[in-house]
Amino acid sequence: MSLRFIVTGGAGFIGSAVVRKLIGETQHDVCVVDKLTYAGNLASLAPVSGSSRYRFEQADIGDGECMRTLFAEFKPDIVMHLAAESHVDRSIDGPRDFIQTNIVGTFSLLQEALRHWRNLESEARKRFRFHHISTDEVFGSLGEKGFFREDTAYQPNSPYSASKAASDHLVRAWHHTYHLPVVMTNCSNNYGPYHFPEKLIPLMIINALEGKPLPVYGNGLNVRDWLYVDDHADALLTVATAGKTGESYNIGGHNEKTNLEVVKAICAILDELRPDPEGPHERLITYVTDRPGHDARYAIDAGKIGRELGWAPKETFETGLRRTVEWYLANPSWWGDIRSGVYRGERLGVA
Ligand code: NAD
Known about the structure:
single chain; about 350 residues; Rossmann fold; 7-stranded parallel sheet; binds nicotinamide-adenine-dinucleotide
């Protein structure tokens, strides 16, 4: 059955992967709602923007009147809510936008979704889902052992993760109190094509290509659990369409790596694909002041989504990273425009 999706934040890194998948691999209709902040980029939607099943609306999720009109006109079956301020370092420098979009914006969107859902006819009412996309960072930091599960207590440490934790709680409460049919997902660190170059992996690829220093925070031993973005998009569509309402699902790739291992792996792929006459790319690694309050380790137990919904990632870290490096090598105009405009690679979030 063909469904109608609103995807908020659809011009961002993960949202655009979801939209490219929805248009490219399904028969569903999609309306992207995106404010186009510094992180939103219509070039990431260019591969699908010619489709008659695609529509773009530049709007703020916090603009209730605009969302109300859009819900009434577009009549979504499923709302996938990805719009957010997403960069921890920026949340340290200026938390206000994070509170405004991630918390107040999500509240406002929930109110409009609830109004829309209450006015639906019975069949459409049964179909409707509000899917909130969140992060494993809401659970805080792990020691050397253990994994985040769906029932792990929340203990967010950064302004970013605290704002996402707050929005998770709002979504859960709108289900519990008003019975809004919601599903929730918390995912580990994503990487892949179209990733904004302020984040670790694209920043390292681009700096290495330009012969610039590769800034590793602290001792480089913080551990993240990496997931290829298309695997995340696949998991999100699975949960949006088949997840049980009121439930949350953790998503992860079982790819724990220290930041230093990630940077060295990028250097090794570049040494092979784009050797630098000056020497191996690892020579560019530079240790810089750590991020304040830097969480030591994140690791996801993704057992529930595997057992209950049959999802498993397709890429290993090695195959996904190679694809990613190849994409950045093949698409210098996508990141070149960003590097010459809104973000030039400067250090953020030193507080
Ligand atoms: P991103 O920063 O690349 O994209 C966010 C998008 O939201 C941008 O297109 C931006 O223009 C839009 N946006 C921001 N404020 C808005 C507003 N007020 N109204 C409408 N649009 C607005 O982020 P991403 O990495 O694609 O992350 C998407 C979602 O997934 C976020 O909710 C994030 O918390 C979550 N998440 C990200 C990761 C990760 O590793 N990147 C991991 C787990 C969860």
